[in-house]
Each structure stands twice: as C-alpha cells, then as structure tokens.
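Allow me, if you will, to draw on your knowledge of protein folds for a short while. The matter concerns a single protein, recorded as an amino acid sequence and a row of backbone structure tokens. Kindly check, if you would, that the fold set down in the tokens agrees with what the sequence suggests. You will find the record immediately after this paragraph.
***
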Amino acid sequence: MKIKKILRRTLFFFISLFILFSIVVAIALNFVFTPEKITPTVTQMLNENLNAKVDCESIELTFFSTFPSFGITLKNGSLVTPSFRDRENDTLARFTECRASFNISKLLTKHNLVINELSLTNPKIKAVIRKDGKANWNIVKETETDTIVVNDTTSSFKINSVFIKKLSIENAKLSYHDFVTRAHVRIDSFNVALKAANTDEKLMLTTQTSGKRINFSKDGVRFARKLKASLNTKIFVDKKKMKVDFDKSELVLNDIDFLAEGHFSIDTLKREVDTDITLEMRVPSLKTLWEAIPKQYVKQEDVDVEGNVALKAVAKGVYGQGKFPLTDVVFKIDNGILKYNKFPGEIRHLEADMHSVLNFNEPEKSNLTIKNLLLEGTGVDLQGNAVVENLLEDPKIDSNIKGNLDLTTLKKKFPVAADIDIKGLAEIDLNAVFKSNDIINSNFNNMKLKGHSTFTNLLVSVPKDTIYLKTQKTELVFGRKAETDSRKAFGKINVTDLTLNYKKQHDLTLAGLDIKLRAKMLKDSVAALGADIKFTNLRYKGLDSLKGSIRRANITAELSPRSTKERPAINTTFTIDSAGVWQGKRFVGIKNGNYKFTVKKNRDEQWMPRGYVEFNSLFAYTPEFAMPMRMEHSKVTINNRAITLKNARITFWNSDVTLTGQINNLFTKRSKGKDINAKLTLQSNYIDANEIMKVMHDNEPEAQPDFNTVAQNQNKPAQPTTNEKAVFKIPENINFVFNSDIKKLRYGELDMTDIKGLLKVEEGHLKLNQFELTTLAAKLTTSINYTPVDNTKAKVDFDFNLHDIEMANIAKVLPAMDSLFPMTKSFEGKAHLRMQGTAMLNEDMTVNIPTVRSIAALQATDIMVLDSETFTEMAKTLMFKQKEKNTIETLEMEMIIEQSHMEVLPALVEIDRYRLAVGGVQNLDLTYDYHVSVLKSPIPFKTGVNIKGDLDDYNISLGKAKYKYYFTDKERLKEKADESIINKKKKILAQLQFE
C-alpha cells in the first residue's frame, strides 16, 4: 500500500511539474518571447553568425507543436549573400515560410545548432559557384571551437556548427550557376525530402528529389529543355577519406527508369572531385522506351511493342576547375517490332546502334557514331548511318540515308493524327558531308551533297494549323548528276504544279519551278550559295487583299555568308516578261522587266533592298487617283527605303509628267515620323487639272480596270477634256516637293503655259511657292496654300501677282473679281494687279465670295475707258469731251475685300482735262456706292460726284469733295485728311510689296 501511495504521489508530482512547466513555457512564449520581441534579436544573432544578411517579417518560437524539441517559424524571409561581380547583392533564398526544430540543450551547452527538422515552403533559391570556386551557400562564419564571447555589447552567443537531420523543400524555384565550368541549371518546381544520420566517421543521407521543367546548358549549348526528373538514393560519406558512395539509386528521366551507381572522392585542397558514375536503363525493352514518348506525338494505346534496348552512360574522371569527366554513351535497339492492333500497318524491323563520347576537356575529340539505323515495315523502307566529329564545338557530319516512303499507305495503315492528311511517294538516296558552322555562316562551298530524292503526287494537309501543300512532282538532285554543260552546279530542284496554302493567309500556285544550286568562291576565301531559278505562272494571294502574278521569270541569286567584314546579303538579278501586284482596287503591272537587287540585313536585323528595276512599260491604278497610269521605258533605283527616279515619264489620260529625284520611306510601316517624303523635279508637256481634280474628288470611282484595259486606254487617243472641277483631297502621310516645269496646264477654261515653281504636298496641304506662268498673254506669279476642309469645301490662302494683264481678262483669270470688281470690263489696256488673302472654295472649286478676306492693289497707265451708260452720264455731268474712248493716264488703286464687299480706298485718276479722286464700296449684289472728288477741272472750284445704285438703276448727284485733301502737295491741307485711310493705303502697298 505504501509503495502504491509513493508511486501515486511521485506520478502526481511529475504531472504537476509538467503542467507547471507547460504553463511557464506557454506564458513565456505568449507573453515574454513574443514574435515582436524575438524577431529583431534572432535576426541580429543570425546576421552575426552568418556571412549573409537575413531579413524576416516575423519569427515565432514553438514548443508544443515540435515537442519535445523547441522550434522556430520564420515567415516571408530572405537570405542575401555579398555580391561577387560588383553589382547588387545576390539573393541566396527567399521563402514564404521556414520551420525548424532544434536541440536546445546542445545549442546552449556546446553552441552546436542541431536542427532536427527544417522545412521550406515555396522558396526561390539561387545557388552560385563563383569564378574563384567558392559557393555562395557556404555562409557560416568560421570561429574557434572553444571561444565563447562573454562581454560583447551586441551579442554574447556564437554558433560553432550547424547540422540538419531532416530537410524538406516544397515547390522551389531553383537556379544553379557554375561560373567555373560554365554550367547552368534552372528548375521551375523542385522538391526535396532528405534525412541525415551523422557519426564521427560517416554521414549517411537518404533523399527523394524531383524536378519539373529542368533546363540545362553548358558553354552556351542547351543539353536539356523542360526535362522531368526524380531521384531516390542512399548516399554514404566517408568523412576521413572524403569519399561518397551510392548504390542502386533510382533515377527517372521523362518517365524512363534508370539505375545509377558509383562513387566520387573530394580533394578539398585542389577543389576537385574524382568521379566514377554509371547510369543504365532499368528495364532494357523497347516497350519501356516507347511508353516514355509523349502522347501528343504517338498513340500508345492498343499497340504491341517488342525488342531490346540498351542505354548506358558512364562518366569517369575529374570534375573541377577546367576539368570534366569523360562521358561514354551507348544506345542500341535490337529486333524492334511495332504493331497496332486496330491498324494493318506494322514496323517489322527496327534497329539502331549509336555510340557517343563527350570529352569536355578536349572537345574536338567528342564524337557520335550511328553505325546502323534501319526501319522496315508497311509503306516504309529506310536505312542510314552517320558519323559526327568534333561534336561539342563545330560538328562535322557525314550522313547517309536511303530508302522509300509510301506516305499514302502510312496514313491509311498507321494511326497518324486524324487531322493530318498525307499522300504521295518518296524515294530518297542522299549523302551529306558538312560542318554545322558552315551552314550557320552560309559557307556552302564546303558542303558536299550527292544523290537524289523524288516526291511524286505529294500532299500534306494540316487543317489544325491550316497548312496545305500539294505538288505533282518534286525532284532534288545533288552531285555530278546535277552538273550541266553550261554551268557547274552541286544541286538542282524541279517542282511541277505546286499549290501551297499557309494559315489561310498565303495562297501560292506555281506551274513549274527549276532551281540550279551552285557555290561561288569569294575574295575572302569563303563561299556564297548561288541559284539559277526559272518559274512559270506564279499566282499569289495574301493578307489585306494582296495578290500577285508572274507569267514567266528567270532569276539568278546569291546568298553571301556572314563574315567579320560584311553582314549577310542576298544578291539577285532576274527578268520577267509580265507581272502584276494587286491590293484591293490598287494594282501595279509591268512588262519586260529586268531587275538587280541586293538584300542585306541592317543593324535592326531587317532585310533591306538595294538595286534597280528596269522595264519597258509599267501600268498602275489606285482609287485615290482613279486614272490608269502608264510609265514608259524607265529605270527605277531602290536603296533601302528610298526610290530614285531618272526621267521617269508617266502618262494618265490627257496628261503626262516626267519625274527625276528620290522618294524616301516607301517601304516603311506607316507611323508617326515615318511619312513618305520625296524631292522631285517634275516636267510636263501637258496636264489637265480638271481631270485630276475630278477623279480625286469622286468618292466612288468607276469599276477597277484590269491590266489590259489600262494598256488599251493608254494606247487610245486622248479623251475629250472636261471643264468640271471639284474639291479634291490631299493624301495623308506624304510629304512631296516638286520643282515643276510645265509647258501647258488646263484649268477650267484657262490654258496656262510655261509654269515654273515649287509645289509641295505635305500634311494634307497643297502649297505652290512662287509659281510663275503665262495665261491670256499675262504673266502670273502666285503662292497658294490649299487645304481640304471636307468633301464639299476647301480653304485657300493665296498671293496673286498679275503682270501686264488686259483689264477685261482679270475676271477670267480671277473669276471672283467679276462679282467684286465688275468695272474692270469697262477698261481697255494692261494693268498690274496684286492680291493677297484667304477664301473658301465650294464643291465645284469656285470661290465662295462672302468668305473672301483679301487686300489688293492695281496699277495701270494709258488705259481706255469704254463707252458705258454710267460713264456717259457721269461725263455729261462733268462736261467731258465727247470721245468713244477716254484715256486714263495713271490709275493706282488699293482695295480691301471683306464681308461680301470690296472697299476702294481713295485713288487718283487723271482723264481728259480732269484730275479725280475715286473711292467707294462695291457690294456682292452688284450695287455700289462710289464717290468721285474733282480735284482739277474746267470748273473753277472743287466738287464731288456721288454714284449710287446698280448697273440698271443708279443715281448721280453732285456733292462735297470728300477726297480733296489726299492728293495735294500742300502740307497744311494734307493734315486735314483722314490719317487712318492714308495708313491703310500704305500698309496695303507695303504688305503686297507693290512698287
């Protein structure tokens, strides 16, 4: 009884003690060692003991969840190591959550951190071996084992060693960069479960590791892409000998199981690893290999696969700075048979024998040998072999393939994808010897090809990718059989009745294609690939209603290789008897064309053309200028984005122009700052402006003509002209400057001759700068800025300077003057008129008189006043002598046109025995209000005559002379004149630069 009581009391004591301890720990964890208090302390301690910077959002101590060990939980942390390339620091790891449980007694007594379990969730890890051979994950600072700092003001605790018993990493993103060996690995999803057991002499590790989407490259060459792998193994480490052994490790690469075994020894002084590892396929059967092929490439259900597979890789040698193990790979397939249960086709015999040596220490000794590759079965009979030397640097390949393919039978008797249709027969017998760098650098002279291949009634249709290819016969011949009497060739290609459709965007048909391939030595001892090409009846349809057609063409082309001096280029010369290009309602066609082009890559890696086009005749049509155009025999030079014309004569209906100069940015995608611009000299015998304005105004031009119609129209006599005019639009995104010399131009009812000046088309404006021309025996100098506002009106800024023009013809040259200044018809003789201002044009290109805002000045001498009812009545009033024509010795007028009327400022007129000052207002409705001040006359006093009314109903009355102070030599009288009127007259003359 006493023993039971003692046991009960003892048990109660320990339970009470445990409960008390738990309460104390709970109080300590929740009130004393809270995350807010311990986070900065622990972070500081870690930073002092690690050669890295630790940051963490929060750190929490745990006990009950990791009982009997203490634990710690870090959230949203990072571990940053110092930079080794003088850039920003390298992040060794970032993690969402890190959990660790550790042995508190060893940590406090021996300063050894023994982590029982460490887990990382969603970390991002960047492991780096620097150029000096040091790894960025060696971050524990070196300390003396018996040193304990006591009086440090920052921390009195140092960690001597760290050991992890169990490690778990979930869904990590891992990148590994070895700058010593230039090997790089990236893994998108990396998982590790590792257990470690440690003694003084040995370390044993058990690990389960997996990764998805693994990419591996070395020396810039990618060896693995999107690889899937997993490894289960036990590793034994002899600490004294620094030797690592592993046996019967299970490695899975893309669902193929391998057994791995071997060992490696570490030399810490030399920083080298002596490696001896063997990797061998676990189940050596063809069925295992077949099932590892992704299902999107082959159908794996209901298929019987037989045969043996041997796949073995051995890596043996030293791994270290500049040293790599020698890797030997053997792959064999024997007695392979493949038969689908639901299809009659079968592969009766499949053999492969390949051997490769990878020597990274002496890359030129690396090689690959394919002794025999044999494939026999329903619709297929192929055999081949190949030898690849210098595999890792500049592979030299010597390959042979021979056999036959019945693509129609293969499609019917094998489970080829249902959405792919293939037909035809293929006969292949080819030998190829070449270096990969020769192909990359286009040095085709070193490539040796011989043999032939023939494809008969070939059809390839992939509706999913909208690819369709069909040809009646395609023949490829290489070697001596390809040589001809006229020119040595190493290959030729003949294609008959080709039809090609790609993604419903490009349709191509070709009746016949004949290509002869040759290699030409260049001056720098490299070779260019050349080709002589002939084809007939090519038709093409593309995007945006683009179409093209060539009836017959001969082409010579050369592809220059890439070198240190020049960028790669394609040189072509070809002749075409007839060709055409359509886009929507636009087209361009040529006959008897000769071309020479060099297409070279620029700094932006864009292929740009340079050369010329020469042809007997060119036809073109565009709805924006709905007049069929024809260019006679001409030569057009193309240099990158520029086109140069030299005496290119273009005819369109009654008009003709000859252009010389350069057009830029013609082949550039339209964007801001990339407008088409040109500087051209324009010469013409005749231009019918009425026709041009009419077709540019029509929103819906006539139906698009074809090439033959264009050619026939151009050969017909000129069409009768029309006087109809219309507002026309100026095309956007073009900036043209024409230095013009036009012998004759028809505008309305006027014929203008000897037109010279600068014409600009820019930003939707038409500008004439100091244009000189002759019309109605008068010389006209003009500057005009024409801007379309919409389809029914346009704005014109103008400056007209008419020299020696008959007064009666002013209204014919400037029709608006007929309404604003009808009295010009009452004069006979020549005058000098200058106008400057702005106006709106109506839909028929006539001036909208109410919108005219202008100033004008007129000077004339010895002009005759024709007899008119108004003048006769005024002559009676002033007692002029009776004459049929009255001569005005001088006439100088300044006018202001605005608000639907013209104001004539006081002007001096000398006629007969009279000296008159005339001024007033002429209205748009042909009514007028003029005043004539008589300054000198037989009448011994000054008087005035007021004339009001219109041409049919007017009134003449005497009054006071309003303008008697404007034309006098007496300063006293000049001061009484209206100074504002005098200033207006001076300003007009100055602005018009009127002499």
